[in-house]
Amino acid sequence: MYQAIVIDDEKWVVKSLIATIRDQEYFEITAEFYDGLSGLEYIRAHEPCLAFVDVRLPGMGGLDILQAAHAENLSTLFIMISGHAEFAYAQKAMFHNAIGYCLKPFSRSELLDSMQKAYQLLEDQKEKTPEGENSSSSPDHTKVFVPRHLTASHKSVQMMIDYTEQHYQKDISIQDLAEHCSINANYASQIFKQEMGFTFISYLTGLRIDHATWLLTHTEQTVFLIATQVGYSDYFYFAKVFKKVTGRTPTAYRKDIEKTEDELPPSR
Predict the structure, then answer these.
(1) 50: CATH
(2) What is the pLDDT of residues 26-48, one digit of tens each?
(3) For 259, phi and psi rounded to 5 degrees?
(4) I want to staple 39 with a disulfide (CB 3.0 to 4.6 A). Which of 7, 29, 71, 159 is the partner?
(5) Secondary structure of 78-117 as H, E, C letters
(6) Among 210, 216, 208, 196, which Cα is nearest to 164's?
(7) What does pLDDT average to over the chain?
(8) 247: left (phi > 0), else alpha (psi -120 to 50), else beta?
(9) Residue 226: pLDDT above 80?
(10) pLDDT-based confidence at residue 10 (cuts at 50, 70, 90)
(11) Contacts of 4 (CB under 8 A, 6+ apart)
(12) How many domains does the chain have?
């Protein structure tokens, strides 16, 4: 069984989740945390295979944990748990590659569906890893941002994804993708949303903001320079989009990250 952890500030919720998923053979809950900072510290140190994370937590929210883990290229998969059926929460979680969003009170079938997805992703990854190869032989991505690669069954949509990953730092549009795929722009927009479940603009924005959060976390570049580096020629528009996605301005986001790092206990 793969290792999993739970991060929720209410113990009864943690116990309820564990009881709901008992007798399944995919994951074993090996640790419980009741605040965001402790949970993120553990994820950074141990990279468990899966983490169930509440959206609202003391110290550091679940979406912030997800965003930090994504920016640092940590391998842990995330299932967000929440008592709030708000689309904005789910949308932000999916921007940063959460594989599930489950509501309280828990539904066993809903949890198991997300866990099966996580299990399959881990099994697929295991098959792709040559025998004897471990994480120590993996390339070091700590000094360069690497966007998470999405896949699609539709050939043209996959071409659009690949093109966007290579050109999101430039001024690109759905028209550019359509020309790249030799198809109509309206059709390109339609099949992208049908295949992926979100619009091209949402995907492009997610890539740019993910890169921006990585730069804010790992570099001392000015916010103005970061804006231009991730594809925004207008600093004020970048700041507006950044706040809409993350809930904070770029400057406030960087200050919160620095404060979080200062508050974390030294690694043993």
Answers:
(1) 3.40.50.2300
(2) 999 999 999 999 999 999 999 99
(3) -65, -40
(4) 7
(5) EEEEECCCCHHHHHHHHHCCCCEEEECCCCHHHHHHHHHH
(6) 208
(7) 86
(8) left
(9) yes
(10) very high
(11) 27, 28, 29, 30, 48, 49, 50, 51, 52
(12) 2
What single letter denotes the amino acid at residue 210?
Answer: D
- 10 and 80 part of one domain: yes
Tokens standing for 185?
């722009």
- 37 and 60 in contact (C-beta within 8 Å)? yes
What angle separates helix 250-263 from helix 62-71, to the nearest 10 degrees? 90
- Give pLDDT, residue 144: 72
Look-up of token digits 């979680």: 93
CATH code for the domain of 187? 1.10.10.60
Q: Tell me the two tokens of residue 262.
A: 């200062």
The side-by-side arrangement of strands in the sheet containing 100-103 is 27-33, 2-7, 50-54, 77-82, 100-103
Does some domain include residue 47? yes
State residue 240's pLDDT score. Answer: 94
pTM: 0.52
